[in-house]
Amino acid sequence: MFTPKRILVTGGAGFLGSHLCERLLASGAEVLCLDNYYCSTRSNVHHLLPHSRFELIRHDVCFPIYLEVDEIYNLACPASPIHYQRDPVQTMKTSVSGAINMLGLAKRTRAKILQTSTSEVYGNPAVHPQPESYWGNVNPHGLRSCYDEGKRAAESLFMDYHRQHCLKIKIARLFNTYGPRMHPDDGRVVSNFIIQALQNQPITLYGDGSQTRSFCFVNDMIDALTLLMDSPDRFTGPVNLGNPAEFTIRELAESVLRLSGSRSEIILKPLPPDDPERRRPDIFLARGQLGWTPKTDLEQGLKSTIDYFRQVLDRGTVTEK
For the whole model, what pTM was predicted? Predict the structure, then answer.
């Protein structure tokens, strides 16, 4: 008799988590979605509630939880500067205590566990593009350090549990990801620009807009995460996951204006402290070990994301908890 995998997704009601829950259900898995709704919304997974293999649990990963699972995707942590700087102590606790609790659960159940780390572990990089072998250039005392250093500490914990307790682990370093179900008020550049453009408000560019980012559409990122989880146990990562196509922030703003038909003007504001000047993943390892390359170009992904936010604004439901 076939027994489906029982998979825990922490942060499962968030932007990435909700898409991952959908994908895992479609694969035949039983999905436990765990979230405390700090920066997510239940509406992201409302359509999954009637599913017989889906369970929604309100819980904070900073506290232990006792479940029986086969795999764990640890996505729980605010990922936008507005959210993680709102309560930096809690952000660090989520990264570190959350990792300890999920690793403890994995140790007890012998589950395979995947950690979503971040390109922010590279800080303001002196190496470009960024390979996994680069140790980074991070300010440990800055406004972003609660997130940057929290994720770096979590990676260290995962590797130590792997070496000391032989846990089956995966570490994914996610670069900028965008798409439907992003939080409209999360302060990330794609959602910011789209919301401003659709409301014909000024598009705020920090600095002169020459800083670069690489934008990966959510469907491509979910492909990568599931491929990583299913990869041979000997491959732990860390592995960069992101789209290597590099754009300036000004180019992104101009694309959003064109695709949305907005009348907004671009205005400049001072660059925030420790904001990386360039960001582009070296995905040689992901291509070789996972056979993964992102498929969605920026224009295609932006059209889908603009359509989503247009519906959100039309409904008047920018925020729902």
Answer: 0.94
CA distances from 144 to 93, 121, 139, 245, 275 (A): 14, 11, 8, 25, 9
Active site residues: 147
CB 77 within 8 A of CB 49: no
DSSP letters along 135-150, please?
Answer: --B--TTSTTHHHHHH
**CB of 171 within 8 A of CB of 115?**
yes
Let me know: does 277 contact 211? Beta carbons within 8 Å. yes
Q: Residues 90-130: pLDDT tens digits? A: 999 999 999 999 999 999 999 999 999 999 999 989 999 99
End-to-end CA distance of the chain: 40
Q: What is the CA radius of gyration of the chain?
A: 19
Angstrom CA distances, 305 to 37, 67, 77, 184, stand at: 22, 35, 22, 11
